[in-house]
Amino acid sequence: MLQLEVIFEVLEEYDWTSFSVVTTRHHGYEDFLAMVEGMTDGSFIGWERKSVVVLNVTDDPGGARTKRLLKDNEA
């Protein structure tokens, strides 16, 4: 949670209010996404979550799918 707070402090400091979330299906990713949602929805900043990209790195050994997803979402 502390790391996420620091990330949002940096985003706020540089006025980067629009962002995408990139994660994997690693244990706890749903909790992470819920924390991001809680921090952005309950804030006066006016965050804009553009997209959530969930990567499946085990089925993409060369990274082609990952690169395409990141490019498609400008993440």
What does this structure look like?
Keywords: Receptor. It comes from Iconisemion striatum. This is Glutamate receptor, ionotropic, N-methyl D-aspartate 2D, a. By secondary structure, this protein is of the alpha+beta class. The chain has a single domain, classed as 3-Layer(aba) Sandwich (Rossmann fold). It has three helices and two strands, in the order H-E-H-E-H. Strands 1-2 form a two-stranded parallel sheet. The radius of gyration is 13 Å and the shape is globular. The model has no long low-confidence stretch (mean pLDDT 89).
The named CATH superfamily: Response regulator
Cα-based radius of gyration, to the nearest Å: 13 Å
Name the poorly predicted regions: none
Name the strands of the widest sheet in spatial order: 1-2
Q: In percent, how much strand structure appears in the residues? A: 15-25%
List keywords for this structure.
single chain; 75 residues; alpha+beta; Rossmann fold; two-stranded parallel ribbon; 3 helices; 45% helix; 20% strand; receptor
Short synopsis of the structure:
This is Glutamate receptor, ionotropic, N-methyl D-aspartate 2D, a. The chain is an alpha+beta fold and 75 residues long.
SSE topology sketch:
Elements: H1 2-13, E1 18-24, H2 29-41, E2 48-55, H3 64-72
Parallel strand pairs: 1-2
